[in-house]
Inverse folding.
């Protein structure tokens, strides 16, 4: 029973809100025990206090982080997730999210931390970690210049020149594109773009034809063309001496 509750807590922390059916699906996929939605609901109701200690509230068929319920934003947050796939980490990584303060430290995070530590904080690793964790938190819920620079101001960081500002902004933007977001069902903006948006883009005509045949193709002809007329391929030659040959 404890592992089921761990899954509820971990997935709520990862997604912000999650249907009990999705929790049952992921749990059953990663464990030998097959748990249905009714059983999942019963176990959750028997452990309400444990869930609340871990910032998880019950709302109908959903498990919802208390931060969403506190501001009465369930419907708004639910709408943001419609039609988006779910990022599902492996079991070991998933259960790390039981800690509400856990987040994935990506290479972009480490790049920002290294810069901040070496260039802005005179090598202070502890302060660099604290500052970058705060910046990561800002990226999880918003991305604006005012919000992003707020942790730097709080930490008493003063930029020496415009070049430093621009370098930090680029590092922060790289980080923000690789932060796991509630509204993306755990996917980062970059992952969601690559998985959902990019495949929906139509290739350019010449790229499509190359992919289909492995070589350049001449345009199809939809009407009869005179042998002495300009070739429709745009070569500038007469049709009889170009594609008509």
């Amino acid at each position: 029973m404890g592992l089921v509750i761990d899954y509820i807590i971990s997935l709520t922390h990862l997604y912000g809100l999650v249907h009990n059916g999705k929790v049952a699906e992921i749990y059953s996929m990663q464990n030998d025990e097959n748990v249905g939605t009714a059983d999942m609901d019963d176990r959750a109701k028997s452990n309400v206090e444990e869930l609340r200690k871990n910032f998880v509230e019950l709302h109908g068929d959903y498990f919802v982080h208390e931060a969403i319920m506190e501001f009465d934003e369930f419907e708004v947050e639910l709408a943001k997730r419609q039609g988006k796939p779910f990022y599902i980490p492996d079991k070991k990584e998933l259960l790390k999210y039981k800690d509400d303060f856990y987040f994935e430290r990506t290479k972009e995070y480490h790049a920002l931390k290294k810069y901040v530590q070496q260039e802005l904080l005179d090598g202070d690793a502890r302060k660099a970690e604290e500052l970058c964790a705060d910046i990561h938190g800002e990226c999880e819920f918003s991305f604006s210049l005012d919000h992003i620079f707020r942790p730097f101001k709080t930490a008493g960081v003063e930029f020496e020149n415009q070049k430093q500002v621009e370098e930090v902004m680029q590092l922060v933007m790289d980080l923000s594109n690789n932060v796991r977001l509630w509204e993306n069902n755990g996917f980062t903006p970059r992952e969601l773009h690559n998985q959902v948006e990019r495949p929906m883009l139509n290739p350019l005509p010449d790229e499509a034809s190359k992919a289909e045949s492995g070589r350049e193709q001449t345009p199809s002809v939809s009407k009869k063309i005179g042998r002495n007329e300009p070739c429709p391929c745009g070569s500038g030659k007469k049709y009889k001496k170009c594609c008509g040959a």
Residues 59 and 224 are 67 Å apart (CA to CA).
